[in-house]
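Task 17 of the worksheet. Students: predict the tertiary structure of the chain below and write it out as structure tokens. Keep your answer in the requested format; marks are given for formatting as well as content.
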Amino acid sequence: MPTQRRHLLAGITAAALARPALAQPAGAEAAARFPDRPVRIVVAYSAGGAADTSARIAAQHLSALLDKPVVVENRPGGNTLIATEAVQRAPADGHTMLSVSLPFALNPVMFERLPYAPFRDFTAVGLISSIPNILVVHPDFPARNVAEFVAHAKANPGKVTVAHTGIGAITHLSGELLYDITGIEVNTIAYPGSTPAHADVLSGRVNAMFDSSMLPHIESGKVRALGVTSARRLELLPNLLTIAEQGFPGYDAAAFYGLVAPTGTPPAVVEKISAALRQVTQLAEVRTRMRGLTMIPGDHTPATFDRFMHEEAARWGGLVQRRNIRPG
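Model answer:
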């Protein structure tokens, strides 16, 4: 073989062997440079709710850890589709993330057609917080625990009114889980947000609600708390029994709020954000603030958060199918 050709083939072989070795440093370099401009967290809900509050707590402290502004952008509407599509189309470089909750994982079961697939088009970053709901009733409602609530609903089928903040929201599904277990029939009423729903429960126009932000009204006596939806009691209300403890074993419902990024975001960048988020949720001031909001701080790696969302989608998807729940 001519010397020139041998040298050419040797050069090609060496280059081919070198290519795979360049892949990992490229990801590491991307992570080292990240972020090189402000980072956006897009929230699919209006300002002021639990999703927005969780995102803003995370953003405030991520800004310090990442040494770049982390800003929250509210893009409500379209059953979370407007925000989700916006992030799906964003560059996969970590500078745009989506704040997600249960509807993100559950929408494929709720809708026949979606412009995205949650576990194909997005990659998990981490969990910010989870938030149990509390079943509350107006003080005039004749029930002081969950068993009495169920008994009253059975005696008055379709007459007990229960507010929620949208079909498929955890405020809705927390109730549907109890109705599924007990066989009771109630009149559920959807509201565009928690504020108008609270107003009707506080006035007595609506009997009850599963909600996470009624603590001040519970403390003032404007509503009566009947039970906590999570498997564990709340630190702020240690004497309030869980629904499961009150004769409904296996009942467990809580909202979750986390971050995902567009698929294709370098794994090293995803891990850098996730590690920073885990630092945030371990900060004493963050844990104190979350505790006051009945939030439970998250502590997930990208892999464990991905597994958690798959499990939630399967669990709640089964309920949606059994109850034949469809968007209004």
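Marker's comment: The domain at 38-130+255-323 is CATH 3.40.190.150 (D-Maltodextrin-Binding Protein; domain 2). Confidence is low (pLDDT under 50) at residues 1-25.
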